Every structure is written in structure tokens, then in C-alpha cells.
Amino acid sequence: xxxxxxxxxxxxxxxxxxxxxxxxxxxxxxxxxxxxxxxxxxxxxxxxxxxxxxxxxxxxxxxxxxxxxxxxxxxxxxxxxxxxxxxxxxxxxxxxxxxxxxxxxxxxxxxxxxxxxxxxxxxxxxxxxxxxxxxxxxxxxxxxxxxxxxxxxxxxxxxxxxxxxxxxxxxxxxxxxxxxxxxxxxxxxxxxxxxxxxxxxxxxxxxxxxxxxxxxxxxxxxxxxxxxxxxxxxxxxxxxxxxxxxxxxxxxxxxxxxxxxxxxxxxxxxxxxxxxxxxxxxxxxxxxxxxxxxxxxxxxxxxxxxxxxx
Length: 310
Ligand code: XMP
Hints:
By secondary structure, the chain is α/β, with parallel strands linked by helices. The chain folds into 2 domains: 3-188, HUPs (Rossmann fold, 3-Layer(aba) Sandwich); 202-297, GMP Synthetase, Chain A, domain 3. The protein is built from 11 helices and 9 strands. The strands form 2 sheets. The protein has a 5-stranded parallel β-sheet, sandwiched between helices. Strands 6, 7, 8 and 9 form a 4-stranded mixed β-sheet that branches. Helix 1 crosses helix 2, helix 4 packs antiparallel against helix 5 (96-119) and helix 10 (208-225) runs antiparallel to helix 11 (276-286). The two termini are 32 Å apart. Xanthosine-5'-monophosphate (XMP) is lined by residues 135, 141, 143-145, 192, 194-196, 200, 232, 266, 302, 306-308.
């Protein structure tokens, strides 16, 4: 891919489309939304407002870390607290598609809708990539960030037009682009993280307590596998329990699944053959989390499995 030509072309297109209007984008800190944020700011400067929506589904200290990271490269990001709205929308839901739908609705109609109105923006910049579109069209997964492909007209539904500068690129192209844009390594090399965030890694109901469990497990897995060189690694909380023994007492505890995969574009993936000692260490640390007494390693490639669980 010719990054220089791509960047120049997209900056020109964004400028022309937005004209003198205002635009807004939501940054999650992932590679895709980060690349869009940098492209957007190069094209629009202060005409673009960037927000980070804290939905309470993010990893440990993630909102603050992302805002700081962008401040260091001269882009100011507004942190919006929407924890209550997302948690109450998810309350009582266990069906994966209903959970994704609740997150989409809360994001676009409630929180983002309000922010767009307040900002007066007429355009939304979005980090959709080619794989998102293909998998949504194929019905493999309802990616929460695809609107047009799901037959939703954002102009009609939410009052703004969507610009998707990365929609012809795959993940590896986006990574190449972030390097070309001289973004810090912590952004370029960030492992993928799904739009529905930790909600994609909780089977069953998303509650504050269950989020806390999966967040702690995620922190352990990310720390232990940071130098694995793998494409993606994650922790999932199952909606089932198993008997275990803690402090000489039997307990019916929670189960965490660890997943670590090799892939280039997330369309297909194979399981990383992690050393036994590493798996053992992870299992030992995970089962020290309150209420968790089992740790499993997922051996399933994609296909037939997807990477996330929800
Ligand atoms: P799956 O689970 O479909 O995931 O095999 C493929 C890749 O996409 C990420 N993923 C998402 N990314 N919004 C996103 O922006 C989503 O709704 C979403 N769901 C999954 C996942 O982490 C993996 O890298």
C-alpha cells in the first residue's frame, strides 16, 4: 500500500466533504479509531472534536491512558462519562445480539446523538475497516459500528453523515498507515480490541461485578502475553460455574477462558502454541481473582470459532 498517496488523498477528501462545517469522532484508542483521529485532525484541525466515551466497558485505566497518549501527540480528547447509561442499557440482557444492539443504541442514539447535537457537528468520522463491512454483510457478526451496511441511514436516524476513511483497508494496512503517520508505538502496536469492549468478553449478563472480574483477568493476560508477539490475546468470563476448593472449602466458582491467536487480518486465526509454563503461570494468577476457580485455554481456530465470545 502507498501510505503517502492514501494519506494525501484521504486528507483532501475529508476536507472537501466537511467544508466549513464541524465534525466529530469517537476515539476508543484502538488502531482504527486512532488512525482516523490523526487523519481527521490533519485534515480538519480544530473543526474536528474528538471524544472518548467512557462506557465502563474498557480495560483497566484505559480512558485516562488514551486521553494522555493523544495529549502527548498534540490532540486534545474530551473524556465523556457515560458509564451509567451503558450499564443500565445492558442490565438484564444475556443474548449476544441484544447486548450488541443495546450498546449500538446507547452509543449512537443516546450518548453520541447528544454529543453531536451539543457540538453542532454535521459529520461523524468513523474507523470502519474492510473486514468489518465484509463480516457484517456476510452475517458473521453484527459489528456495532456498521450503519449503512445494516440499512441504517445515519442522516435520517441520527442527523449526521458518516465518513469512513479506512473502509478499503484491512488491519495490517491500518497498522502500516499508523507507522507512516508516525504515531507512537503504543498505538501502532496495540492489539485489536472490539467495539463492544469487555461486553464482548462476558457471556451472560454484564454487571459491574462481572466487569470487574473480566477486567482483572484481562489485565493479567495482557501483562503475561505482551511479549508473545501474537495477534490478539484476551480473557473471557463464562456464564457458568464449576466446583473448586479454596481455603479447604468447596466453592462453586467462576470460569475464565484465555484466548491467544495468530492472524494477519482477523478473518481467520489459529491458536498460539504457548509454552506450558506460561499457561500454568497465567492459570495460577487468574485463579487468584476473587470467585474464580478455573482457567481454561481455548484451542479453537477461526473458523469455526470467532475470536470474541459475544
Ligand atoms: P470476531 O470475534 O468476529 O472478531 O472473530 C474479529 C476481530 O474484530 C474484533 N471485533 C470487533 N471490532 N467492533 C470492532 O470494532 C466489534 O463489534 C467487534 N467485534 C469483534 C475482534 O476483537 C477481532 O480482532
